[in-house]
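Summary of Year 1 activities. Much of the first year was spent building the evaluation harness for sequence design. The harness presents a backbone, in tokenized form, and records the residue chosen at every position. We chose the following record to illustrate the format because it has been used consistently in internal testing since the harness was completed.
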């Protein structure tokens, strides 16, 4: 199991493996000098050195029977390690396309998929010159980041230049620069796509897509930032629209060369048809996997079983409808308190409220932020009831956020 951190999503997958009686070796991008600092016997790897890290994982004893990758940064290493181990997984070339929005767009266009006008420029380019090439409204986004981080809509040249500088500052953060990833050194510009947004969760087996869920995103995502909130399944769209989304996903998987493993896809639908936004060679992020429960398994258990070639033939949802709200950051600053959690939990159809941010933690909203302060889960008889429960529960929560004070270096003299 290759993970960027030992956070809650990693623990969820490790617990799923334990329930299945599967032995897990954890590989994380952590200090390789300290001897097992977290006492989890994890193998230390470096995502910025994928070939060497893959060689280390290929030499593990006992030899791994399968690979699970958690989060985008892990997928390239997972593909290289799987190739060396001879276990089925997405090919390195396919994963590389998924992790570069410009190359992904080119693959979509070559496959005849609907694609907005787009181009990429180095992040240190002149933003005024880049704006002169854009068609407004447009969306600027880092090539390699995920979860809407750094994604900004621009309606004119002035807002374009401001957005460009903002994304440049994000890409200059040490936490990103350390990976030396070429995708983190460029900015993608593409014409804004109007329409409703959806997400599809699936598993690919030897090139064949098996759809696990199609999610509606009921909140409008029109910018200037694209903070996702509610996911609902099953979709309330027409059968024709759902069929078009699934078929477009199948074509996308073929266009990118994804062959074996989980996928998470995002798309927009309007009168022209289905526009793929992106597809990732990994399962849905954060704690959102909890929204998918089947009578026989959780999503985490399915991903582990699939990695071992033991995917169940039949999957029945545990509830008629389910949903999750990724709680938006209530503001920038330090989290002082959260109230109303117990009241939120007692709303009908709510199955869980998880505040993952810790008191004293700095909250950073999108587009700079990379995480949500928590999640709300619901199950019910239909998607409308689930959506209403999520909104009612969120209304019960009260966050107190203290403005972060600027820090100054002392001066002497």
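For this record, the design step produced the sequence shown next.
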């Amino acid at each position: 199991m290759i993970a960027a951190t030992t956070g809650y999503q990693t623990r969820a997958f490790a617990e799923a493996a334990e329930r299945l009686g599967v032995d897990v070796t954890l590989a994380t991008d952590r200090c390789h000098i300290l001897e097992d600092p977290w006492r989890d016997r994890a193998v230390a790897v470096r995502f910025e050195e994928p070939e060497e890290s893959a060689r280390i994982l290929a030499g593990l004893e006992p030899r791994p029977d399968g690979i699970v990758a958690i989060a985008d940064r892990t997928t390239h290493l997972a593909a290289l390690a799987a190739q060396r181990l001879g276990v089925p997984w997405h090919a390195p070339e396919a994963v590389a396309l998924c992790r570069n929005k410009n190359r992904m767009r080119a693959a979509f266009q070559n496959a005849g998929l609907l694609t907005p006008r787009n181009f990429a420029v180095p992040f240190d380019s002149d933003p005024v010159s880049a704006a002169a090439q854009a068609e407004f409204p447009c969306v600027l986004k880092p090539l390699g980041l995920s979860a809407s981080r750094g994604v900004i809509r621009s309606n004119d040249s002035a807002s374009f230049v401001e957005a460009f500088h903002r994304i440049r500052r994000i890409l200059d953060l040490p936490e990103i620069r350390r990976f030396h990833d070429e995708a983190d050194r460029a900015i993608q510009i593409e014409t804004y796509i109007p329409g409703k947004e959806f997400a599809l969760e699936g598993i690919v087996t030897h090139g064949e897509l098996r759809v696990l869920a199609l999610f509606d995103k009921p909140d409008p995502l029109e910018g200037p930032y694209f903070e996702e909130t509610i996911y609902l399944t099953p979709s309330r769209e027409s059968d024709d629209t759902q069929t078009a989304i699934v078929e477009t996903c199948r074509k996308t998987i073929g266009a990118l060369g994804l062959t074996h493993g989980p996928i998470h896809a995002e798309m927009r639908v309007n009168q022209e048809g289905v526009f793929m936004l992106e597809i990732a060679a990994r399962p849905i992020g954060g704690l959102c996997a909890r929204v998918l429960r089947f009578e026989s398994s959780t999503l985490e258990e399915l991903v582990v079983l699939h990695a071992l070639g033991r995917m169940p033939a039949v999957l029945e949802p545990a509830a008629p409808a389910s949903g999750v709200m990724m709680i938006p950051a209530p503001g920038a600053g330090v989290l002082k308190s959260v109230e109303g959690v117990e009241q939120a939990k007692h709303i009908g159809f709510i199955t869980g409220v998880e505040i993952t941010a810790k008191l004293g933690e700095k909250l950073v909203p999108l587009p700079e932020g990379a995480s949500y302060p928590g999640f709300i889960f619901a199950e019910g008889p239909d998607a409308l009831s689930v959506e209403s429960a999520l909104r009612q529960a969120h209304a019960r929560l009260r966050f107190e956020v203290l403005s972060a004070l600027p820090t100054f270096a002392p001066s002497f003299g």
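Residues 32-39, 406-413 have pLDDT under 50 and may be disordered. Quantitative recovery figures across the full test set are reported in Table 2.
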